[in-house]
Amino acid sequence: MTTPRNPGELELLMRSGIPMARAMGLRVADFDGGRLALVAPLAPNVNDKGCAFGGSIAGLLTLAQWGLVNLKLGEAGLDAEVYVADTSLRFLAPVWGELHAEAYVEGDPWPDFLVSVATIGKARIEVYGEIVGEDGGAPAARQLARFVAITRRAVEPD
Amino acid sequence: MTTPRNPGELELLMRSGIPMARAMGLRVADFDGGRLALVAPLAPNVNDKGCAFGGSIAGLLTLAQWGLVNLKLGEAGLDAEVYVADTSLRFLAPVWGELHAEAYVEGDPWPDFLVSVATIGKARIEVYGEIVGEDGGAPAARQLARFVAITRRAVEPD
User: Engineering a disulfide at A51: which of A5, A94, A153, B12 sits with its beta carbon 3.0 to 4.6 angstroms away?
Assistant: First the structure.
């Protein structure tokens, strides 16, 4: 598997490689070069109270953040595996409809991150994520996640 | 929906009320009054790298922790809704087989927690969770989660 170079390749990678992403009904909604937005319908992601299941919120946010790191690597022509190291998630309000997740970074850490991956084969990055609140108001959930990217080793020929 | 009073009722509540719990293939493995253990097979929870998807790890841990709080309430004859407030999750090692999650508390916060729910109708509690490591060694993931329990209002008769 190689690093996806555009939102269509990312969606295909997530839906074909991660059964739970498919079960969640996840789609890439938008990527403007800085923010990645994913959506998922409520029905497969509902809990016993009729609102969005916390595990789906965690999964969707982590996939949005992981996806953003992959797209920035792919745009730069780099092929690296991206691992999540840790997450801190606050649930702020229930979600009663479609889930909208957005991932973004603060400042511009991408040049340093991409140069490190390209030169020493490894780098870390912090990515923020939010579940958009009802009627576009305050977020329904916020997550900070840290990722490690490691260049894929060239496969030795037989 | 009322608070589950035993592991069988909890498994039924999770699998019937939360489609993603069913999609994950989650089962209650054990409850000894203090620790709740859940298991899920790798196949539906795999990622693009062939090990467990971080979103499944987050979901399984949160369900184990949420389930433990529900069982302690149910054992005490209390009927309350349990909400996750926040989680901090560290991914420590990949999981290449069945996922085993365990939830537990530190010390004995249950008496204070249960008395608060019974008397003022609301209480908070911290619950720890671990994904058991390969060959039972160091954990593959650790999560601290905080929950709020709120007594269900009595339904007014017609």
Answer: A94
